[in-house]
Amino acid sequence: MEKVLVTGSAGHLGEALVRTLREQGHDVVGLDVLDSPTTTVTGSVADRDVVRACLSGVRAVLHPATLHKPHVGSHDRQAFVDTNITGTLTLLEEAVAAGVESFVFTSTTSTFGRALTPDRGEPATWITEDVVPIPRNVYGVTKTAAENLAELVHRDHGLPVLILRTSRFFPEPDDRDDVRTAYADANVKATEYLYRRVDIADVVDAHLLAMARAPEAGFGRFIISATTPFTPADLPRLNVDAPSVVARLFPDQPAEYARRGWRMFGEIDRVYVNARAREVLGWRPRYDFRYVLDALKAGEDPRSPLARAIGAKGYHEVSTGPYTAR
User: Fold this and answer.
1) Candidates 3.40.120.10, 3.40.50.1360, 3.40.50.720, 1.10.150.20; CATH matching 3-176+195-227+273-287+305-310
2) 253-260 and 185-192 helices, crossing angle to 10°
3) Each residue of 180-233: pLDDT tens digit?
4) CA geometry: angle at 295 spanning 292 and 297, to 5°?
5) pLDDT digits over 70-128, tens only?
6) How does strand 60-63 pair with strand 102-108?
7) Residue 324: which pLDDT band, with cuts at 50, 70 and 90?
8) Which of the chain's termini has less CB crowding within 10 Å, N or C?
């Protein structure tokens, strides 16, 4: 088994990765600025000495550590640059020096930013890896820059790097006031599996596949989101009358939502497409809208056992909006 460095080991995905890798028998180094049961080294990814020490004997790096979108309200732009750009560059350079064989960088669909939203009356956007990002905030800007640094280091030094642009997997309430007011939280999350959400167990699977495939693949970007039931033919209708499209594809959805007092979103403005990850990585996400709807009808929790075990963590040093301070 390999020795693996996991950054952000106290966070949602970091903890899930550390748990899973240890269960599989890997020797795991967990690095985070916060101490936790899954953190073995407390320190910053931007601290070169700390990173160099963590990489001793490591063959693979999984790098989900980041300042997130909720931190935009609590951290200045320099903090985002320090963690998301400088920290990633430090890891990349030290990984090259250490002879790391596989580097997986956790990015985000937030990099697409303004490219996600169609003009009023236009079809919903079909989001593949070929869509050019137009970042909306410093989070998106720094993650995009980090992606580009990863590609540069790969080209200059041959470090195998795969970038996973993950959609929503966090359990916290939606960060938009209007959405939280209009819909029950479970209503929102279930519906998002149609186009912009993924279960953390499937995200972990994607990372482990990417870790194994990186040496052969060399470099690549992949969208990691639940498999959508929609096709490009659905896009014009989705952005004006999503309920009719969903009811056609899932005739049992309206009754189940009505039974719970839920509503389908009136409009869906974008669809994340995971075809490249399924084709290149061999990724097979289990948790999609069909799975979720069937679980709801059976009175079961639609979350994976791993998602239930990790639970809600909040985002450290955040005290605004629905996110709790740690």
Assistant:
1) 3.40.50.720
2) 160
3) 888 999 999 999 999 999 999 999 999 999 999 999 999 999 999 999 999 999
4) 110
5) 655 556 778 888 889 999 999 999 999 999 999 999 999 988 888 888 887 799 999 99
6) parallel
7) very low
8) N
In whole angstroms, give the CA distance from residue 265 to residue 243.
7
Residue whose pair of structure tokens reads 């999350």 in the numeric block:
189
Domain boundaries, the chain: 3-176+195-227+273-287+305-310
Q: Tokens 């929790």 sit at which residue? A: 301
pTM above 0.90, yes or no: yes
Q: Is 158 left (phi over 0), alpha (psi -120 to 50) or beta?
A: left
* Phi, psi for 321 (deg, rounded to 5): 65, -155
Give Cα separations from 265 to 116, 257, 273 (angstroms).
Answer: 17, 11, 19
- Assign 3-state DSSP to the chain and report helix, strand, coil percentages, each to 5: 45, 15, 40
- The residue behind tokens 């059976």 is 298
Count Cβ atoms within 10 A of the Cβ of residue 199 and give its class: 0-12 exposed, 13-18 middle, 19 or more buried.
buried
For 251, list phi and psi in degrees, rounded to 5.
-60, -20
Q: What one-character DSSP code corresponds to residue 43?
A: S
Tokens of 217: 């693949």
Residues with Cβ within 8 Å of 59's Cβ and at least 6 positions away in sequence, in order, are: 2, 3, 4, 100, 101, 102
